[in-house]
Amino acid sequence: MRELWQFTKLIRSKNAGPFELTFDIMFKNRDSFNDVLKSEALSPNVIAQLYQVDVKQVRFFVVDELLAIKISIPRRVFSGDVDDTDIYGGQFHSPLVRLPVKE
To answer: Has residue 103 got a pLDDT over 90?
Structure first.
């Protein structure tokens, strides 16, 4: 079993406004992209569990032409709140990096 980072050239998170996070996952090549999609390691259900949000709040886009997946979820604490630990949303991608992918 490999981890998601081994299939990608970029995994990042950032704010999509103060109330949402967006994740960009860009793959090394067509085979890596197809292998991850086929494995079902990434899905709205997986993201909902990983980030503890309702699956109905997960927006999940597969962009075949770009070999990319884009995901948006609500932030649990809005950007700039006194309890916010990452004002720019740039560190929320870390659980995705080590996500197991069955081959």
So the answer is: no
